[in-house]
Write a structure and sequence with these properties.
Helix content: 10-25%
CATH class of one domain: Mainly Beta
Shape: globular
CATH topology of one domain: Immunoglobulin-like
Structural class: alpha+beta
CATH architecture of one domain: Sandwich
Number of strands: 46
CATH superfamily of one domain: glycosyl hydrolase (family 31)
Oligomer: single chain
């Protein structure tokens, strides 16, 4: 949903009365922020003289007189760094409760040397740190932190030739040469390349070089900036705890470490990996029913239909308007056809005495308040709006119970919006005044700490509420905003992206960046939220999104409709090819989803996942380890140059074999080049006359050595029972590719037949 800087969006979007309110809101916010007590200027300080070092409760503590450094080693190749007790302060992100390793500590000349498993940290007399891997190679150098009052900063040197990636939702892959604000922000219009900051600004990044990865999460939710130069990263925050967590290793290893620290991704139900159709402005249950029938009439698979804010009664959460009286019947009919219903939920509540949720939240004191103790009031879609304080456990629990209004009619998924948090303002920052008061889980504080975690905690409230309301189902939600750890509750979509070719390319970069930041389930609005894409742009966007986890078409109410048949038969036939390929690959997608819940690996991966020397490649990506995708990201392309990791690789449609490190392939309007790795097995499926067939798509092995093989994880599609899991080995026997199955964990299998098919047509069979 496009939201934000009220007047900049036009009176036609938010209405004349709301535009006037947005002006008053901006003035009130400016006055409120001026009332914040300014701390007196304090001299810049750094750690004092290094003194004694000790090991206390499995922590290394080094006394610097004016600062206390603490190091902890939670696992192989990992260290947590904190100053002045920061590692013991509450964290909104960290959930890991692993037993810390017992460190070794010794004096090494003028330095202290602290060792954990697979990592060593040299503490220098000025408070700078040198991180070494298990082979003794220096992988990271942290300068001494510097304080100025509550603000702090630290400069980290990069290995020669390293690139830097992540920081949540950024529009470029390699961050070098930029400064990136860590303050979740509704950008105030459809974004494209260069828009920054956006809705998720997680301060987690990976430095990649030929030796592998160094991942760092700066665990501070306050406003900050991360500046990335060629040789260093400088993180500067206006307040908050001085702490960061470092992991060394390959890219898979450091993301495993980060999601151990901040939580594994929530596994979606299987249907959430199919195609989703949405539009702001369907307007009625009858209109949605017509869209569903359109997919049936045109023989196009569909897994979910989404209802935007126009489903609400006067734009109020947890309600349905008069045009939606048959909502329960509609949801039931859709579900009977395998199509789930997803609703948008905004962060605010209309300030209206006739609105039960407002009355109850007010009576129970669950709302954010201003510096004077009055309920904070902003301006959003319903007009005057108040906001639950999601940093209050009582408010989170209450919010979760309100979802019953949706669950009782069979709603299957939730789409969080406006939760940066965003309000309409005519100028300035489109969010709450910084002096807005929050509970902060009983500690009390203001919006400077709460802002970046507000959306994440809204996700937590919904996720925990759904676990109580529907304990047999896995909650499905995705959110416009969040912070480190949001993957525990759901995924993310891009927000309101522009309909242009540069934004299409940025979708790939965002997918990579979110993966580095822990969030694997990601997608953007096919065709862009605003604007009018050409048929070619829409087709290429649809093809790309068929290889990203959240595969959703969505747009604003004031642009042409985006259902496949609206583009004519030629384009619709191209979209049908992408749709049917996506549904054939669902067993593979589901295997990746269930695997991410175990090891944190993103579904979509840069080529550096397999080979760090390919870290500069930003227009080709992996889906898992077995599939490589080379989307068309520019207008008028007829040939595509594709960089390939060590292979060979086999074209997923033609079966052609490619051995070179870079190849050029012809690309027609129907084509999306995708490839299967030599010796890999990709589980796919077919439904034929009611027979559900598991088709093991295998690529010929590269040679006589071990082949990658494959894996299948599957279950009933939802629920919490352990999934069925089996592994596939590959070898060539008398010129025939033989795939051998090994059941690792028996469970709900669900397939009637199992066959083997070689991607290039070679003879193949089960062993």
């Amino acid at each position: 949903m496009r939201t934000g800087r009220g007047l900049l969006h036009g009176v036609s979007l938010i209405g004349g009365r709301n535009a006037a309110r947005a002006t008053l809101m901006a003035l009130r916010r400016r006055r409120a922020d001026r009332r914040l007590v300014a701390l007196p200027d304090r001299p810049r300080r750094q750690p004092g003289v290094m003194g004694a070092a000790t090991v206390v409760d499995r922590s290394v503590r080094v006394d610097f007189g004016t600062g206390l450094l603490e190091l902890r080693f939670p696992g192989p190749g990992r260290v947590s760094v904190g100053w002045d007790g920061a590692l013991d302060q509450p964290s909104w992100a960290v959930v890991e409760d692993a037993e810390l390793a017992v460190p070794e500590l010794e004096r090494a000349g003028a330095t202290w040397l602290a060792r954990g498993p697979g990592i060593a940290v040299v503490v220098h007399p000025d408070g700078s740190l040198e991180h070494r891997d298990g082979a003794g190679r220096t992988r990271r150098r942290d300068g001494p932190p510097a304080w100025q009052g509550a603000a702090w900063s630290v400069r980290t040197g990069l290995p020669v030739g390293a690139s830097v990636h992540g920081l949540g939702g950024r529009t470029v892959w390699d961050l070098r040469g930029g400064a990136y604000r860590c303050w979740n922000t509704d950008p105030g219009g459809a974004w494209t390349v260069g828009s920054d900051p956006l809705s998720v600004t997680t301060p987690a990044y990976a430095a990649l070089d030929d030796l592998g990865a160094v991942h760092c999460f700066v665990d501070d939710p306050f406003d900050g900036t991360v500046e990335v130069a060629v040789d260093a990263v400088t993180a500067a925050f206006v307040g908050g705890p001085v702490r960061w967590h470092v992991a060394l290793g390959s890219l898979p290893e450091v993301l495993d470490a980060f999601t151990r620290l901040t939580g594994r991704p929530a596994p979606p139900p299987r249907w959430a990996l199919g195609h989703h159709q949405a539009r702001w402005g369907y307007g009625s249950a009858g209109a949605v029913r017509a869209v569903w029938q359109g997919f049936r009439e045109h023989d196009l698979p569909l897994s979910a239909l989404h209802l935007d804010i126009d489903h609400m009664d006067r734009l109020r959460d947890f309600t349905f308007g008069s045009e939606w009286r048959e909502i329960a019947e509609l949801v039931s009919d859709l579900a009977a056809d395998g199509v789930r219903t997803v609703v948008i939920v905004d962060a605010g509540l209309a300030r209206d005495a006739d609105y039960p949720q407002y009355r109850e939240a007010l009576e129970r004191d669950l709302l954010c308040r201003d510096a004077d103790g009055e309920v904070f009031e902003g301006v959003v879609w319903p007009g005057p709006t108040v906001f639950p304080d999601f940093t209050d456990p009582t408010a989170r629990a209450w919010w979760g119970t309100q979802l019953r209004a949706y669950a009782d009619v069979g709603i299957a998924g939730y789409w969080h919006d406006m939760n940066e948090p965003s309000v309409f303002v005519a100028f300035g920052d489109p969010t709450f005044p910084l002096s807005t008061r929050h509970a902060l889980d009983g500690r009390g504080g203001d919006h400077r700490e709460a802002h970046n975690v507000y959306g994440q905690l809204m996700c937590r409230a919904s996720h925990e509420g759904l676990l109580d309301l529907q304990p047999g189902q896995r909650p499905f939600l995705f959110s416009r905003s969040g912070w480190a750890g949001m993957q525990r509750y759901g995924g993310h979509w891009s927000g309101d992206i522009a309909a242009d070719w540069t934004a299409l390319a940025a979708t790939v970069h965002q997918a990579f960046g979110f993966g580095i930041s822990g969030v694997g389930y990601y997608g953007s609005d096919i065709g862009g939220f605003t604007g009018v894409p050409s048929p070619e742009l829409f087709t290429r966007w649809f093809q790309l999104m068929s290889f990203l986890p959240l595969f959703r078409t969505h747009c604003a109410f004031d642009v042409p409709r985006r259902e496949p048949w609206e583009w004519g038969d030629v384009v619709m036939d191209r979209l049908r090819v992408a749709l049917r390929r996506r549904y054939r690959l669902l067993p593979y997608w589901y295997t990746l989803a269930l695997g991410a819940a175990r090891d944190g690996a993103p579904y979509v991966r840069p080529l550096a996942w397999l080979d760090p020397a390919l870290r500069s490649v930003d227009d080709v990506f992996l889906v898992g380890d077995a599939v490589l995708v080379a989307p068309v990201l520019a207008e008028g392309v007829t040939h595509r140059r594709i960089v390939l990791p060590a292979g060979p690789w086999f074209h997923g449609d033609s079966g052609a074999r490619y051995d070179a490190a870079a190849v050029e392939v012809a690309v027609g309007p129907d084509d999306l080049p995708w490839f299967v790795r030599a010796g890999a097995v990709v589980p796919t499926e077919e439904l034929d006359d009611g027979v559900r067939r598991l088709v093991l798509l295998v690529a010929p092995p590269a040679g006589p050595g071990p082949a990658p093989g494959g894996l299948l994880r599957t279950d009933a599609g939802d629920g919490w029972d352990p999934p069925h899991e089996e592994r596939y080995g590959v070898q060539v026997v008398d010129g025939v590719i033989v795939v051998r199955r090994e059941v690792l964990v028996p469970g709900a299998f669900g397939f009637d037949e199992v066959v083997v098919r070689a991607v290039d047509g070679s003879p193949a069979r089960l062993g």
